[in-house]
UniProtKB/TrEMBL annotation:
The lineage of its organism: Eukaryota, Fungi, Dikarya, Basidiomycota, Agaricomycotina. It comes from Agrocybe pediades. This is SAM-dependent MTase RsmB/NOP-type domain-containing protein. It comes from the Eukaryota. S-adenosyl-L-methionine binds at residues 171-177, 205, 232, 263. Residues 53-428 form the SAM-dependent MTase RsmB/NOP-type domain. One of its GO terms (biological process) is tRNA methylation.
Amino acid sequence: MGKRGRGKGRHNNSRKTQDDRTDLLEKIDMQNERLFAYYKAQNIVPEEEWDQFVDTLRQHLPTTFRVAGSRQTAQTLNSTIKDVHVPSLSNVVFEGQKIPPPVQIPWYPDGLAWHFNVPKKVLRKSPEFKKFHSFLVFETEVGNVSRQEAVSMLPPLFLEVEPHHRVMDMCAAPGSKTAQILEALHAQDTITSTSIPSGLLIANDSDNKRTHLLIHQSARLPSPALMVTNLDASNYPSIKIPGTSRNGTSRMETLQFDRILCDVPCSGDGTIRKNMGIWKSWLPMDGNGLHALQVRILQRAMNILKDNGRIVYSTCSLNPVENEAVIAEALLANPAFELVDVSDKLPELIRRPGLHTWRATGDRTVATTFATYEEFMASSLDDIVKSKMTEGHWPPKDAEKLNLDRCLRIYPHLQDTGGFFVAVLQKSAKPASASTNQTLERKRDAESLNDNDNNGPESKRLRLSELPSEDTPTPVDPVTSEVTKSSEASQAAPIAETTAQKTQPEKKVKDKSSGNGGFKENPYTFVSPDDPTLRSCIERLHINDDFPSSNVLVRNPEGDAARSLYLANDIVKTIIKHNDYERLRLTAAGTKVFAKQEAGKGTEAQFRVLGEGLPVVLPFVDPASIITGDVASLKTLVQTYYPLCSAFEEPFRSIVEARPTGSHIVRFPLGTHGEISLSHDILLPIWKSNVSLTLMIDKKAKSALSLRVFGADITTVGKEGQADASQKPVDEVVPMDQDIADDIKNYCK
Ligand SMILES: C[S@@+](CC[C@H](N)C(=O)[O-])C[C@H]1O[C@@H](n2cnc3c(N)ncnc32)[C@H](O)[C@@H]1O
């Protein structure tokens, strides 16, 4: 749950929030002469479209959502929306007006994303929309639906992630794009079981609190391939993994990524339709001030990308200083990279090309904008203002050669969305060509201009040469597999930083984490495959020998299986084994599969399989050990907390009575059972005590299951709170990257 609307009176509060929001929309003066003057000067839209562009900025943004989860799960839920909900919403008339049903976003693959624009009071009062709304609320809470601004769904689509890819999401929180990337890594999952992809996703954010939001979000799609780190992306340390040199000797190498997402912190003016405060606060300095960090993050991504790998750079800002200027500066410094022409991808997406010319300014009134840095420096503006700008804020001399038109600009009036910018960059494996040599010359020109003392203080210039480099692989001791001390010292910036971090961990950590305090997480430690607790889980649940028991970890330095057991895939295991977790500020790794269940007095505690862990474990479980259930038993388990075994009908009753106490798995097979029909098998973990059973999934998952199977929330909590939940606006259910004003206020500026 987000920070809003907890506890008593939540329902009234959330309604109040909605009303306040509508009032705000009406009251706020959606006028900002600086913003208009700035964007008119950029020529971002043709003169004849300007009024339509501004009118759209002033309109409320429609609700958009994406059906999440693996391919199979998503398709099944999408069919429910298409075949059950949309027909029931197609003839709704409210206060004499026909209300349009949700429609699919035309460019989103497989029709899995939806758009609807319905006044709040319709959601509250129309029985059909109320039901649909409840469905969205519950499915969002369990992660089958992701409420996400349409344009924010774009970057992961252009990233084209495959299950074997090593992927880095550099600025990941709160995690809506991380979830999309995870789904792509897990494309091979089935509706009941999770694959163990060979790939990797490192989701990173420099804000410690927000990494926890990220962990919460990604718990909706548990993955053994996920790691979460809490570092400054512009200075991300190199990750070491063992490799082999050309002559066959083993050595440590730097991990390089196939795909990197740089969804960088930005001024966020593309979100003005949701974040109305931007109307009042917008200044050109918002973007100017972020430019250098944005370049440094992109540069770092370029350094850790594999040959032929791909980077997607994106912002929810329309400002060329945060967009084309960043791309141009990074391309000039990295001739091996080029912008990818993606004009044939997502053909239904209406986009405009990136700009080759723009006019930056340091003048807060935006009375003047400047075509070039030289023009700006020759102006009568104050020296302090001048010192805050760099040449990189302006277009380079022959910007056309960089193909900046291959960038994508998404304007709100084109398809009723937020404003957005995306650039797709590819690293070629070829040496620099004649044209890239020219680029190098331009870079040298640019650097020599930077060296001119009249061009502002040295500290304000981006020193590209200071960025960490990945060139030197680190030899490894063939016996111990450890990095030798001397080679460690020879690594440029990342290692220097590590050494500093080791000697003064607290201080350094504080400096780097934007005031979030020291790093207090516990390390992950692998347990022995022969660990008695692990062996007991494996035996009791009839898990076969293919289960990767050497990839099971715990979260304490001693390696004690005290509370929870996690499962990681091979690459996550390798990274954990060969890198200092404090240096990586490793916040999460792998997925939790088993947890300790305290038993009653005098009974020994056992471990149980978790709801979120079951899909990962299931492919290894002996099918004969799985109990077959019936819909009546499922209903009893959903309705009651601890139903007695004797409350169930035969044959389920005798089967469970014959089972030992502890963790078991029940399969409810697909098919029609009286009035209830299951479109696929449902597998759930249960706990059997001496006389009763418990369904071991959390209450939100139970409510969503109930709503899906029985058409209503028949859980105890649901019966008490359904009215409350169904009234809760869907946009208050989960934080959305473009939806929380705080996100923009606190983190994107
Ligand atoms: C636009 S938001 C990212 C939204 C996210 N990709 C999503 O789709 O949910 C930018 C994020 O960058 C993070 N951030 C800011 N500076 C950073 C840095 N130097 N390194 C890494 N992350 C940073 C912020 O904490 C914020 O969460």
